[in-house]
Design brief:
The complex is a heterodimer of chains A (255) and B (309). Chain A has 255 residues and is an alpha/beta fold. Chain A contains eleven helices and ten strands. In chain B, helix 4 packs antiparallel against helix 9 (200-226). The chains are: A alpha/beta (255), B mainly alpha (309). The complex binds adenosine-5'-diphosphate and magnesium ion.
Chain lengths: 255, 309
């Protein structure tokens, strides 16, 4: 199968504290790839490095065969990388619909001058973007909240909205950071279905960081386990469940 | 443009049209011209502060460049006034680019510091090299459009506020467009904006240039209205006044810029009655309103109107 994302020898420290050590990982196109590990293992840091929010100390990131290690985040988004955040980053003062609409900016940017002079094609396009945004809201089952300010949604809805906003950028790879955190059982189930749907219907590759083991086992094709910034195991859900290294890492983490 | 905005603009334009005819007092009309000029500078800064989340403490610099360049070109090079303003605006935009590129690529409030320095440098340069040095120069040509000399106070009132209305329409176009949505997005979360493909620093640079253009146009209007310039007009004090107009009127409201400019421009005139205490009263009023009207006047009034309905 075709490789969409490849990490080679990624190192990252924060003030002398090693957060990631020689991380190697390959994500195949069309798969739902889970990244798990105890708290503080470095999962979020790795997603930040992949999306360009954090710089890396050493190593290379290939996205669709291209070395993007030094690309700013917005260029990675243009290439087809979308993401959500563990600490939600919705545009709180904007409505749910507008949150999705800005997602379309990437593919439909007309430039400031045409916005300032409100050229005719700008108006037409905005109508088009609005229509497409409503379709996405339908897709993620959030239409009934379209005119709510994003900050007034529940945490679960905000996480779903972040997925919708990312979908508007028409990504090929979607990075999800703990999408089920703060969701109740029913919401988590719907989320699982949505992630599957996104992959099955839109062919979007998903790299998902998650703590909810039931969800992970149900939706993922392959799982990579991170512990203290090192990859300690990789394999299918059943394989990982039985892996003694993984069990030790999780039992070692007293909650 | 939304219906509500269109209606407000129409009423506003009507009020402007009848204002000089009904008021007749040329002193008040003159102050209103200054208010309009200030409103333009404040409008540009509102987009920068309220929508792009950046502070500039150097708008006086762009205002000064607009005024001096246009005045010098028309007075010493004989360039017709409209063109001299256009060139001055171009000069100010270039300076904005040079200033913005290094300071906006960095995170944080580098722009505030850089613009503060920029404003001071312009102020010093005008003192050192401006015609007449610190005491300034006069005889700057007045406006003429297509051979029609704009010299009466009423004419200049209409010209100034026409430019303000045009600036308002263009700003509303921007804010209500997809471009405006990206500005709000950047304001709410830079990280998320970057991750949906918005080139945040490039957009900030563009908005900064836009704010410089507004200030430079205002500077041109000022120069050819008063026909006399001296550096003291373009000091840090003016930059701070513009920030106050924006904050007082309401950072996230374009109308706030106009309301803020009207208040800050007229307040000293209203306070004349306090004689030697006027500066003190001025300061107290500003401090209190900033403390108690956090959101700014226009948003607060809008909220109140909504509640009444
Ligand atoms: N910006 C930062 N500055 C300093 N330390 C950080 C920073 N980001 C993450 N860390 C540290 O890196 C480690 C891994 O964090 P994180 O990637 O959030 O783990 P996870 O997502 O697996 O729970 C933690 O010890 C955290 O404190
Ligand atoms: Mg995390």
């Amino acid at each position: 199968m075709e490789i969409i994302l490849q990490l080679k020898g990624i190192h990252k420290s924060f003030g002398g504290l090693k957060t990631l050590t020689d991380v190697n990982m390959t994500v195949k196109k069309g798969e739902i790839h889970a990244l798990i590990g105890p708290n503080g293992a470095g999962k979020t840091t790795l997603l930040n490095i992949i999306s360009g929010i954090e710089s890396l100390d050493k190593g290379t990131i290939f996205f669709k065969g291209q070395d993007i290690s030094r690309f700013p985040p917005y260029k990675r988004a243009i290439l087809g990388m979308g993401r959500t955040f563990q600490h939600v980053e919705v545009f709180g003062e904007m409505t749910v619909k507008e949150n999705v609409m800005v997602g379309f900016y990437l593919r439909k940017n007309r430039g400031f001058v045409s916005y300032i002079f409100s050229l005719p094609e700008v108006k037409k396009e905005e109508k088009d973007i609005e229509k497409k945004s409503l379709e996405i809201l339908d897709y993620i089952a959030l239409s009934h909240k379209k005119d709510f300010l994003a900050k007034n949604l529940t945490i679960g809805e905000q996480r779903i909205l972040e997925i919708g906003r990312a979908l508007a950028t028409t990504p090929e790879l979607l990075l999800l950071d703990e999408p089920a955190a703060g969701l109740n059982i029913r919401e988590t189930k719907t989320l699982g279905q949505l992630i599957r749907k996104i992959r099955d219907e839109r062919g979007i590759t998903v790299l998902v960081v998650e703590h909810d083991m039931e969800l992970i086992m149900k939706i993922s094709d392959i799982i990579t386990v991170l512990n203290f910034g090192c990859v300690i195991a990789e394999g299918g859900p059943l394989e990982i469940q039985k892996n003694s290294e993984v069990i030790k890492a999780y039992l070692g983490e007293e909650d | 443009m939304g219906k509500a905005n269109l209606i407000s603009l129409l009423f506003f334009a009507l009020a402007l049209f009848f204002f000089p005819i009904t008021v007749k007092d040329s002193y008040i009309i003159t102050i209103s011209i200054f208010a309009g000029i200030n409103a333009l500078v404040a409008l540009g800064l509102t987009i920068l502060m309220g929508y792009a989340g950046q502070i500039s403490l150097g708008q006086a610099g762009f205002y000064g460049v607009g005024a001096y360049v246009s005045a010098i070109l028309s007075l010493y090079a004989g360039i017709p006034v409209v063109f001299s303003i256009a060139i001055a605006v171009l000069a100010a935009s270039l300076l904005a680019v040079i200033l913005a590129i290094p300071s906006l690529r960095l995170k944080g409030h580098y722009l505030a510091v850089a613009t503060l320095g920029f404003g001071e440098i312009i102020h010093i340069l005008l003192n050192e090299w401006g015609p007449g040095g610190p005491s300034g120069f006069g005889d700057i040509p007045t406006f003429s459009i297509l051979g029609y000399q704009i010299s009466s106070t009423n004419d200049y009132f209409y010209l100034t506020w026409l430019v303000v209305v045009i600036g308002m329409i263009l700003s509303q176009n921007l804010i209500n467009s997809m471009g405006g949505k990206t500005l709000k997005a950047i304001h709410d979360s830079e990280t998320a904006s970057l991750c949906i493909g918005i080139n945040v620093s490039q957009i900030k640079i563009k908005v900064f240039i836009l704010s410089a253009i507004f200030a430079a146009v205002a500077g041109g209007l000022y120069a050819h209205f008063v026909t006399f310039l001296s550096p003291s007009t373009f000091s840090l004090f003016y930059s701070i006044l513009v920030v106050l107009m924006v904050v007082l009127g309401g950072m996230r409201s374009l109308w706030g810029a106009i309301v803020g400019a009207l208040i800050i421009t007229f307040l000293p005139e209203v306070l004349r009655g306090f004689k030697e205490y006027d500066v003190l009263v001025y300061g107290v009023i500003l401090t209190l309103s900033l403390l108690f009207l956090r959101k700014g006047i226009v948003p607060i009034v809008c909220d109140m109107v909504k509640k009444w309905r």
